[in-house]
Amino acid sequence: MRIVIVSATSLIAQNVAKVYAEKGGHEFVLVGRSLSKLGAVANDFRIRFPTSVFETVELDFESTDSIRAVSAKVFTSKVDLALIAQGSLTNQPKASADLDYLQQQLQLNAVSVALVAEEFADHLETQGGGTLGVIGSVAGDRGRAYNYSYGASKALIEIYCQGLQQRFAKSAVTVSLIKPGPTATPMTVDHDARKATPESVAKTIVSGLESGRRVIYAPSLWRVIMFVVRNIPYAIFKHLSF
Amino acid sequence: MTTKSFGGIRAEPKFTQSPFWVSEISSSDLQGSYLVTGNNRSYGDVALVSGAKVISTLSLNRMIDWNPQTGVLVCEPGVLLSDIQTTFVRQGWMLPVTPGTSLVTVGGAVANDVHGKDHHFSGTFGEHVLSLELLRSNGETLTCSKTSNAELFRATIGGLGLTGFITKIAIQLRSVKGPYFDAEVIPYGSLAEFFELSEETETQNWQASVSWFDCSTSKAGRGSFTRGNPSDTPFKSEKAGSGLSIPITPPFSLVNRLSLNVFNTAYYQLQKMAAGKSEVHYRDFYYPLDGIANWNRIYGPKGFYQYQSVVPMTHAEEATSEMLNVIRRSGQGSFLAVLKTFADRAPAGLLSFARHGVTLALDFPNRGASTEKLFQSLDQIVAEAGGTLNPSKDARMSREMFQKGFPGIAEFSKYRDPNCVSDFSKRVID
Lengths: 242, 430
Prior knowledge:
The complex is a heterodimer.
Chain A: E1 2-6, H1 11-23, E2 27-32, H2 35-48, E3 53-58, H3 64-74, E4 81-84, H4 92-97, H5 99-127, E5 130-135, H6 148-167, E6 173-180, H7 198-210, E7 215-218, H8 221-231, H9 234-237
Parallel strand pairs in A: 1-2, 1-4, 2-3, 4-5, 5-6, 6-7
Chain B: E1 3-4, E2 10-11, E3 15-17, E4 34-37, E5 53-56, E6 63-67, E7 72-75, H1 81-89, E8 93-94, H2 106-111, H3 119-122, E9 129-135, E10 141-145, H4 150-156, E11 165-172, E12 174-175, E13 180-188, H5 191-203, E14 208-213, E15 223-230, E16 244-245, H6 257-274, E17 276-281, H7 282-286, E18 292-293, E19 304-311, H8 316-330, E20 337-342, E21 357-365, H9 369-384, E22 388-389, H10 399-405, H11 409-412, H12 423-428
Parallel strand pairs in B: 3-5, 4-5, 16-18
Antiparallel strand pairs in B: 1-2, 6-7, 7-11, 8-12, 9-10, 9-11, 13-15, 13-17, 14-15, 14-20, 19-21, 19-22, 20-21
Helix pairs in contact in B: 8-9
C-alpha cells in the first residue's frame, strides 16, 4: 500500500503509521510542517520497520500554493490511503482573549484541513479510488463552553466529510471521518484511566478505515457517550460543566 | 500531581514536563531544581522528586541511527528496552545486558547502571554504552565516552540522573542467532549447593544465570537454579503476549504468611517438575513478570519494598544464611527471593551497584514499623559483611550506609549538575 499521512508528527498519526508498518511492507509519505521533525520520525520508523519505505515532504498549512504543490507531488503515484491529521488542542480561554490566536487556531484546525481534504479528494477522484481518512474529534459533536473554538473547527471537518461522502457515494473513493476521544500522552497513562492510549486509538482507527466506516469513534465507546451528550436537552445542558 | 514509584512510594513534584522533541530542549528547561525520569520502574525514590520539576523522557522514544553491520544503536533516552529487543531480535541482535523487566527506558538503564542474569558474562548495562550526549543546566551539551569527557561519562553511568539530561545514547548490541535460550533448571536443597552451582556456572561460561529461593517455609534455603545460553534456533513467528493484568489495587496486600507458604511450596514443586533442559523464548527467560501488567498491585495500597543487597564473596555464604535466619524468625517471608553471584569486573560507573559478590533481592509488603525493623537487622548483617544496598530499589537506607557502600560519591559530586535533585539524593547524598 502507498499511504500518505499529513501531519505525520502528531501522536495519533505516528501510531496509525506504526499499526500499518507492523503489518508489513508499505510505502509511506510523511507530510508535515517541519522537515527536521519529520526526519526524526522517519528515521525511527526506518529502523523499526525495515520492510517499509518512508519519504518525507514539507507542507506549509497556511499556503494554498504549498497545498496544491504537495498534493500534486504525492499523487504522482497511486495513493491507497491518505490520512489528514493536523490539529492543535485550542486553549479556549486564550482563544476568547486573543483574536489572533483564535484565527491561527481556526486556520490550522479547520481551514487547512478542508483545503487539504478538497485537494486530495480531487486527486483521489482522478486516480479512480482510494481512501481518505480525516481526523476530527468528539469535540465537534456539540458546542460546549470549555472548548467551542476547537469543537467548531472539528464540526466544520464533519460537515466537509459528509459532503465528500455524498459526492463520492457512487465512486470507489471512500471518506472516513475519525473522531478520537481525549487521548493519553505517555505521562498521563497511569494517572487518568479515562483516557485511551494513542496505541489503542490507532488500532481502532485502522480497523475502521479497513472496513470503510463513514464515522470512526476511537475508542468506539465514544459513539455512545456522544450520542447521549448530543441529546441532552438544552435546559439541562446549560447547567452542566464538562 | 502525585507520582508513584513502582514500589508505591509517593512524591509531589512541582510540575511535570514531557517534551516531544530533543531538538526543542535547551538549558532554559533545566533552570531550577529538576529530575529527568523514565518509565517509573525504580522501586524506591531515585526517580521521584518532591517540590521540583520532573522532565519525563517517555515521549523522547525515537531511534536515531542503526548500523546492522556493527550492531550499534543510537537512540533517544525514552526508548524502552522492550522496543529494542522486539525490533532487533528479528534482525539477529539483542541487548547484551538486560534487567528482569524490559519495561524500562534506555536512559533509566544507564542512570541506574542496571544488571541482570548475565552479569558474570557481560557485566552491567553501562559497559555497553559507547557514548552519550549530556545536556547540562549551564548550557553545555557534552558528548561523553570512554575517550571524551571520560570522568563525566563514568559519573553519568549509574549516576542516578544527577549529572544532567541524557539526550542521546549509543549502545552496542550483541549478535544472536534467534530469540531463544537453551535453559537448564536445577533444583537445590541448600545454600551450599547454590554456591557450588554458581561457581560451576561461571567456570562453564554460561551466559545467564539466576536463582529463586525459598525463604519463608520450614524448608527455607532450598531453591531452583536457572541458567541459559543463547540457542541456535532461528527466529520463528512470534506468539502474542498473555495480556494478563492485575486490574485493580486490592484494599490489602494479597501477600501474607499463608499465601507465601502456599506459593513457595507450590513454586518449588513446579520448579522441580520443570527441572532439566528446555528451549525458552527470551521473554520468558528474561522477563517472566512482564507478561502480567501491574503485578506490583498485589501488594495493596501500601505497596512493597524490594531489599537488594550485595555482599563480597568472602563473607557471602555466612551473611546470606544469617539473613535467611533473620527473615525466617521475623515471619515476614518474601514472595520472590532472588539470589545471584556478580563476577569480579571493574564497575562501569562511579556509583555502580553491581560488584564482585552475591546479591540477594527480596520483596516485602510494606507493613510499616515491623518491616523497617527487619530491614535494620538485615542492614547490620550486610554492613558487617562489607556489603551495600541497591539505590534503584531502596527507599529507606541510611545516609551512613549509602556513603559507606558508595565511596565514589566524593569524586561523583564534582560531576553533579547542581540543579539535579531527587528524593533519594536529598535523603542520602545532599
